[in-house]
Amino acid sequence: MAVFGKCIRGAALLAGVAMVWAAPAAADTIKIGASLSVTGPASFLGDPEAKTLEMYVEKLNAEGGVNGKQLELIVYDDSADANKARTFATRLVEDDEVVAVVGGSTTGTTMAMIPVFEDAGIPFISLAGAVVVIDPVKEFTFKTPHTDRMACEKIFADMQAKGLAKIGMISGTGGFGKSMREQCLEVVGNYGIEIVADETYGPSDSDMTPQLTNIKNAAGVQAVINPGFGQGPAIVTRNYKQLGIEVPLYQSHGVASKSFIDLAGDAAEGVRLPASALLVADKLPDSDPQKAVVTGYKSMYEEKTGLPVSTFGGHAYDGLMILVEAMKRAGSEDPKAIRDEIEKTSGFMGTAGVVNMSPDDHMGLDLTAFRMLEIRGGDWTLAE
């Protein structure tokens, strides 16, 4: 019987704005936790992450658990609020006494939780995108998604290959968008590319035509990159088409879900972005070593939820499986022993790619883990 209990909602948890999924306390369970943005502006991240953790913990427990014990999963919904996330991180450590955490849907919530887990010595595998999560390296903090810096590099390499030397940039001012903009500015010179227009928009902005008009009028713009996630990039994409801008538009892996295509509509046609192979699982050749993992996850997620797969749920799958394998190798529930084994992760094939961690690299992915995708006919395709 799976040790994964009912959904509990109520005033006991920050006046009813939080949600906990938990199993009944038992001596033969291993407690792991998460604070995810299941509701709120980043629910497109947190909801598939929570669903993934739920269904795979259930699966693992049905298969016998880990080290002879059942997993007890405790999930809090922080609604993308950094203050709530920090509160829940403290609760996971002090009240729930978890041995490890997989979570942190956004960069903002992740950065708020890191000091709590570092101080407590609890291994934390974040699902957020920004490179600041693991650079500089922190003893107990890891992450599964590709970084924003890698996204910049993958996009600029594609632009360079196409001879695109002058570009515009329009970035969200939230945690991820701000961080990716900074990373792009740092590495763009390595590719012989010049940013001739640099615009930003706020998280509540609903019309980016003024900024895009400035970019359109900038001399010699050959392509545009949009660091950001959430609804902002979809608005940018729609405004882009409305203004008749014809140069290529690149988005980040922060929009790598079907919801972006749905929000952007026909305007998404031709948009390029770096993402994991998960979005094109069925289109991969049988010889691709990642195909079995991504098709397996995709099939299970879509069958269980009735929803299209996203890379964000895949990040949760990777984080949970990296943790489980580390606990098996450690043969222990000691957080420090688990941390040490996470850091030794080598050759792990996940939905994001092959993971090889080290004391100097708490993510373990390289640029080969990214695929360049293009939206065609309302669906993801491998870019040519």
TrEMBL record:
Signal peptide (UniProt feature, chain positions): 1-22
**Classification via CDD domains:** PBP1_ABC_RPA1789-like
Instruction: Indicate whether Flavoprotein appears among the record's keywords.
Output: no
Top-rank taxon of the source lineage equals Bacteria
Q: Name one GO biological process term.
A: amino acid transport
- Swiss-Prot/TrEMBL keywords: Amino-acid transport, Signal, Transport
Pfam annotation, one family: Peripla_BP_6
Name the InterPro entries on file.
Answer: BCAA_transport, Leu-bd, Leu_Ile_Val-bd, Peripla_BP_I
Which SUPFAM superfamilies does this UniProt record tie to the protein? Periplasmic binding protein-like I (SSF53822)
Q: Does the keyword Nucleotidyltransferase apply?
A: no
| Domain annotation Leucine-binding protein: ranges | 29-364
Recorded family membership: Belongs to the leucine-binding protein family.
Kindly provide the name given to this protein in its UniProt entry: Amino acid/amide ABC transporter substrate-binding protein, HAAT family
Give the classification, highest ranks: Bacteria, Pseudomonadati, Pseudomonadota, Alphaproteobacteria, Hyphomicrobiales
